[in-house]
Amino acid sequence: ELVKHNLRIIEEDKRIKAYQGNALDLSRFKDKSFDIVLLFGPLYHLISDKDKLKALREAKRILKDDGIMFVQYIMNEYCVITHGFKEKMIINEMINNKLDNNYKITPSRQDLYAPVRICDINFFNEQVKLKRIKILSPTGPANYIRKYINKLTEQEFNIFIDYHLKTCEKYELLGASSHILDILIKK
Length: 187
Hints:
The chain is an alpha+beta fold. It has helices at residues 4-11, 42-45, 49-62, 76-86, 90-95, 118-128, 146-149, 154-167, 171-174, and strands spanning 34-39, 63-74, 131-136, 179-185.
């Protein structure tokens, strides 16, 4: 964990051994040390593709053969829709060259997030040679309709959960979700 505050929270569970560190340099760990590796933040905070690939390679290096990696990403279209259109920042972001002609966000080192598209995720997996087990959206449309979800009755909420579980792996919906969870295996 990179953030000290998060590390303190993790360390409250005495069963977990946690370290402060950076996903770009896992040299404190030997090759093939772990059955499972979680990357639940680095790949949406690392700006360059080069750094994203480096983090994935480091995670793969410390993962045992047939080990499972869980990688979370923040998605480009969600950011364009929410920040650009809902928050009315689209013209400002275009003037500042934060979007290319295909509405792909082009973050700079000062930005907190570097969103991706499904094609980027597939490219990273190909480069690092990780095999996908499953890709899904843990949030689906929930972030778009949060204020409505919070007003649902218990019965309506249960129906929404059923809907989400039945659609969270639909490939055609993944790119518009806020986050994607890619579950991979090291072969």
